[in-house]
Amino acid sequence: MSAALVCDGQLVAAVEEERYRRIKHVAGFPRQAMRACLEMGNLTADDIDVFAVSRNPRAHLWRKALFLLTHRPKGTIASRARNLASLQALPGTIAEALGLDAARVRRRTRFVEHHPAHLASAAFVSPFDEAAICAIDGFGDFVSTSWGRVRGSRLLIDGHVFFPHSLGLLYLAITQYLGFPNYGDEFKVMGLAPYGEPRYVRQIESLVHLRDDGRFELDLSYFRHWNEGVQMTWEDGAPTLGPVFTPKLETLLGPMRRPDEPIAAQHEAIAASLQAAYERAAMHVLRHVQQTTGSTRLCLAGGCAMNSVANGKIRDQTAFRDLFIQPAAGDNGTALGAAFYAWNHLEGRPRGFVMAHGSWGPSFGDDAIAAALDAEQPAISEGGCARRAWADEAALDDWTAAQIAAGRVVGWYQGRMEWGSRALGNRSILADPRRADMREIINTRIKFRERFRPFAPSVLEEALDEYFVGAVADPFMLQVYPVRPDKRAIVPAITHVDGSGRLQTVSLRSNPRYYRLISAFERLTGVPMLLNTSFNENEPIVLTPAQALDCFLRTSMDVLVIGRHVVERATGDLNA
Predict the structure, then answer these.
(1) Residue 538 and which of 107, 110, 239, 371 are 20 to 30 A apart at CA?
(2) How many CA atoms lie within 13 A of 208 on its CB side?
(3) How many Å separate Cα 170 from the centre of its chain?
């Protein structure tokens, strides 16, 4: 859950509640995120003209009623009644959170259907006046996939795939089967897939039937979400989902992997097969969207738009030539979409905003950073760390680049926090992409996560073609492309096992400070990129200076560069 603030058609702030609650993907109501957006916009709650919510409890009512009458799923009527009641209570919840009159908030609340909010989150902040639009995800307001066109300030929706059929649910089912039960674990399977041979493609493709009209249908005998219901926890904590697949899936693929079991070659093969089957189905949808719209430009959204491996293949496997995906493409981005849908589509206001960077969260000035460090000075000293401040920003960038080039791991905390799940150079852990051992060092001694997980390269935009094959600029780290074969030995730490990298291009437009740091590293080493991973350790990306310092002290990072301040360990040898 998240909140976004749009003023006169311009995005002012966007932030996810998890950064404040410190629980990944925290469910519930984004109280703190809303208040933070108002603070960043220097506004009060009384200044808000429209509260846009990315759900519409009345959407597709006749389809929902027909499904319930036809299938009579267990427990669904009661759960949908609870869901409807909570949505209808939202104006009161907003009023309570912001200290407003409930009746006034109710008059100003606009319920935006989930999928139009997804579509708007990409379309109305893209550089395209006209383009095809598509959203592929799990479910929202009874829809899993939708497509159409954007023309100026209007969304024109041409088609849907409705509940219970969903490519997002297909990916979730196999993710759970592979022993990754947590909400959002699909990205782990995507990272695991290149290690395996796709020997189970035929079996997994049998779970989804592709239709001639661009739609698809699941073989529902393998899934339980549509008739048995799925246990869910979705309020004020980490969201949880019970198993969405039936025992028949184990008959097809063999026994499921338990989370505590080692990953075997069979699991790698199933992950590779899932990715291949998903890509075939997704490209089937996108080719239909391109053919029916005639556009070569695509705005893509939904949770499945976070599948960066598939995204990097869209230009090769469809007739789309230009692609835009904003950095919070999943459900966290529907707050952004609902706000722009209300401004552009409902109000008919002309478009005047393009999202060129991802820095839309809070920032903390030098005084706040210094105060946070002062408060923890005993812990800094006890940790054997030295502290100093720099007056010259350019000199600090040169020094930081030298530390990275020497093999040290740097926590980099600058400017406004990023919007979306990717660290884009403001809340990042940075390292030398030339060190073959750096991926294992960070995975096992800093991030404490699975060894198979890859790291992303942040590359200067002008050096993109020098290091990657067929790639296009992407400041949001949402597309994977092959690293050029002659460069793989030069940057092994960011080259995945299949020779690819999930790249982020960095320019003076998108992130001037980060661009200057990478440029300083290039001057030292001749390599115009850094290894970039999110500044966290099994938690949401750090928000405050105190959280950054805490993460630094409890892990094996060598250096923390936070604003113009540096905290440095006495030794930087991670191999000692």
Answers:
(1) 371
(2) 28
(3) 19
